[in-house]
Queue: 2 jobs
Job 1
Amino acid sequence: MGANRPKRQHYLPRFLIKNFLTQDGRIWVGDREEGSVFCTGPDRVFVDSEQYTAYGFGPDAEEKDYDYEEAISRLESEAAPVVAEIVDRARSRRPPRLSARQVCTFQRFVFLQSRRTGESRQRVSSQRDPDEILSEVAASVLARGGYDAPPQHMLLGDPSMRQFAKRIAHNVDARFAAGDDPGLVEEEARFCRETGLLVVAIEEQCGSFILGSHGLTIHETNVGGRCLRSSLLPVAHDVIVRVTPVAGQLALLCLDQANDPLITEINRSSASRSRWIAGKSERLIRALV
């Protein structure tokens, strides 16, 4: 299945990346692990190989299933015009005008971005021992085939079994990214019911927002000694959308130069959980690497 499908799959969609390009259609990229900065085309950033591909086992080991990638692509196709509408109205300083279905589509897209990147999945599972996870997923597949799982040290001591376990873990990650789980479906529905959207637009002279490879920006602030956390999705170099706890909210907030410290805080939050960052400003990317 899917023999002609491309191996390289974007984990931040191209329709978002294009909203952060320079005038000549390129984008500045920073590798925060290596400390390097370079300029490249939009097809070469926030992309990885076979991350949403499910692999077969045994006689079907060479088979590749692209159903998860296709499910993600379908949601992206629905979300792209909604994002375009949000950005267009924000740039003309008008609040979003979206139907209930469009709002739900955008909320589902935000929910997708919160779990589809490698860094976001790692954040969710960071409290667990990787060997424990590999042991569990391998044992669960063996059990479905009617086999008893060997002790963990034997299971993971066999190099071929470790490769087998890693392949299963990859499929589990791909399934999680695509939301193919009843628990995630219920959580997504609750997320759509219980949240609203605040579109934040900034003036050109205020600089710009960046994209981070973590996907969703998690911004933490302290108010009166209390830590408040909010989730934001950068959708253009001058527009970011905050998820609010006010169900059904659709509002616009415009920031001017007086809000430069807040813009800087948000960009630092985007960078803090991301190895890769990108945007239209070389100076900004260099400052955050």
Note: The two ends are 41 Å apart (CA to CA).
Job 2
Amino acid sequence: MIVIPAVDIKDGKCVRLLQGRMEDETVFSDDPSEMAKRWNDAGAEIIHVVDLDGAFAKSPQNLVSIKKIIASVDADLQIGGGIRNEETIRMYIELGVKRIVIGTEAIRNPSLVIQACEAYPGKIVVGIDSRNGMVAIEGWAETTQTSAIDLAKQFEQYGLAAINFTDISRDGMQTGPNVEQTKFLARATITPIVASGGVSTIKDIKKIKELEPDGVIGVIVGRALYSGTLNLKEAIEMA
């Protein structure tokens, strides 16, 4: 299982939000590339980069910061936020990004996911953000009538690299991950699952690690790393 540190970018700064609320932010660094390098040097294999402004603007908004991260680290990057068309996907692939996370468009325009999987095999991730079991989109501002499981199963045959599954109610709250819902989703689909939301301590890493036989291949960690309740090196060793 891979432990994946998150670097969320808003207005060119590295921030963490509570439950995705843009107004509820904590700034951890004025230079996201410094944070990415810190996690890179601690042994991260993949770093999860989110363009928060892009998620709301529907197009990349923090390219300067993202290019600086790419130049600063050896770890692979997966990038999400504002990825709404093939041009943006191609741009990131050409910049050397390993995985592209498609969220809103998986609901709005599922053909984009299918075409991207065909064009860039092994590089496409669908981000499923769940509020009470239903998929939330548009930077989590809108909750749909599509269940997380139905969306996951929709893309099973197209060779997704993974599904990033986030329980919004846990995100940034450090209340522990939603282990049961993560297990439920992992067992319901053949696509590998990366868990996200609520990780607070090394005990939470252990709980997610126990879901490996169910198909959970990774866990994204954010606020716990920044607030110091979780040590990335220790988490990687545990995983």
Note: The radius of gyration is 16 Å.
